[in-house]
Design a protein that fits this description.
By secondary structure, the protein is α+β, with helices and mostly antiparallel strands. Helix content is about 40%, strand content about 20%. It is built from 12 helices and 14 strands. It has a 5-stranded mixed beta sheet, sandwiched between helices. A 4-stranded antiparallel beta sheet has the order 1-2-3-4. Strands 6-7-8 form a 3-stranded antiparallel beta sheet, with no helix packed on it. Strand 3 and strand 4 form a beta hairpin. The chain starts with a helix and ends with a helix.
Length: about 375
């Protein structure tokens, strides 16, 4: 069979395997080398087993129709990969802030309350070992608002509220700030969290998808290009450009490779020529490990890029509230990426975040607070 046809058929089987893996109850683990996978068309279970050659299946596709893989083996591979990523997670825990800022002793006593100009009360401590007095406010020093207020504002804004509605909510809590102050918090802490998260390599799969959607930047039409991991839905990289099919999107592919620490085995996009040009310059090599570019798959009549379309829907809903982004390098776009990857659970991922499936687990009831505290450590 022609190589292009083989790749196309394998990709169709892989996508059907994703549908199986996405549906709860379709895969049963017997042991580390044996699984049962439910048929998509009948009430039949197929045995999928692992040996020195890889995964094999009892279905007719695997036994009689060649290619070495069927949708059931793809489904099991996805399930195993997600299990392994969770087990190898990088866990970011809330910090123990009840220690001295100067000598790190835990021999502390409460020593009154600091009253801020905003009318907020922050606990003051004294260290019995070094004698220093301080307020423990890691990451939120010299702010008039408490960490709880700031992180509540971040959550409200990135989950869909406007700056003005966020400001009105804070006013109901007795905190009087302007919408510009909320925007200043967003700019400050998104930059801090982004710099911290850049040091952690996500455990993404070998298949990535790219797509674009139009956004208004200062009233002018621009395009936001995004790269997403196929398995975990982890948003790997982004780029704002002027044109859809002619702008150079090499920075998108380059940044994605830098973030993931590798190139994908398969790169999926629409048929725009700039994606193929960037692929040729960034991912294609003459060696055996060259990335395969699939720019148009015919599956039930057309190219299937539903996973990217779901993420585009998130961004479109957010843009309706913002109306327009002020600058192409706005911290809001990076903040949306952090929110998508680490704060928002996804139903399709069994109510986990893409970050969790990519091996980055942020613990604590307030994930914004946990992330900011860890990012603020020197």
């Amino acid at each position: 069979m022609h190589d292009a046809q083989t790749l196309q058929l394998l990709e169709v089987r892989r996508m059907k395997g994703e549908q199986i893996a996405d549906t709860e109850g379709n895969i049963e683990r017997i042991d580390g080398n044996t699984y049962r996978v439910h048929s998509q068309t009948s009430d039949v279970w197929y045995g999928v087993r692992h040996n020195f050659r890889g995964w094999s299946c009892d279905c007719a596709d695997y036994k009689f129709r060649g290619l070495g893989k069927c949708k059931h083996t793809f489904a099991v591979e996805l399930s195993v990969a997600l299990r392994n990523r969770i087990e190898e997670s990088r866990i970011i825990q809330p910090l123990d802030v009840q220690s001295c800022l100067y000598c790190y002793s835990k021999n502390l006593v409460r020593d009154g309350i600091r009253h801020t100009k905003a009318g907020l009360d922050i606990q003051r401590f004294s260290c019995k070992d070094c004698g220093k007095r301080f307020v423990q406010n890691l990451g939120f020093e010299r702010l008039k608002a408490t960490p709880q207020i700031v992180t509540s504002a971040l959550q409200l804004y990135f989950s869909g509220e406007s700056l003005r509605n966020t400001q009105k909510f804070l006013a109901m809590q007795g905190v009087k700030v302007s919408p510009q102050t909320v925007l200043n918090w967003i700019a400050k802490y998104v930059k801090l969290m982004e710099k911290y998260l850049e040091q952690i390599t996500p455990q993404v799969s070998d298949t990535w998808r790219a797509d674009e959607l139009y956004v208004k930047v200062k009233g002018n039409m621009k395009y936001l290009f995004a790269m997403m991991d196929n398995d975990t839905r982890f948003w790997i990289a982004q780029q704002v450009a002027d044109h859809k099919g002619t702008s150079d999107v090499r920075p998108l592919l380059h940044d994605a490779q830098e973030t993931a620490g590798k190139k994908p085995a398969t790169f999926i996009s629409d048929g725009a020529p700039n994606f193929h040009d960037a692929y040729n310059k960034e991912y294609r090599t003459n060696r055996f490990d060259s990335t395969v570019h699939i720019s148009h798959i015919r599956l039930q009549g057309d190219h299937n890029n539903n996973r990217m379309e779901r993420m585009n829907g998130e961004l479109r809903d957010r843009e309706k509230v913002m109306r327009s982004i002020k600058t192409a390098d706005s911290p809001i776009l990076k903040g949306l990426q952090i929110y998508h990857n680490h704060m928002r659970p996804h139903m399709a991922l069994d109510n986990k975040t893409p970050g969790e499936l990519a091996g980055i687990v942020i613990e604590g009831a307030n994930k914004w607070l946990t992330l900011i505290q860890n990012a603020s450590k020197k």
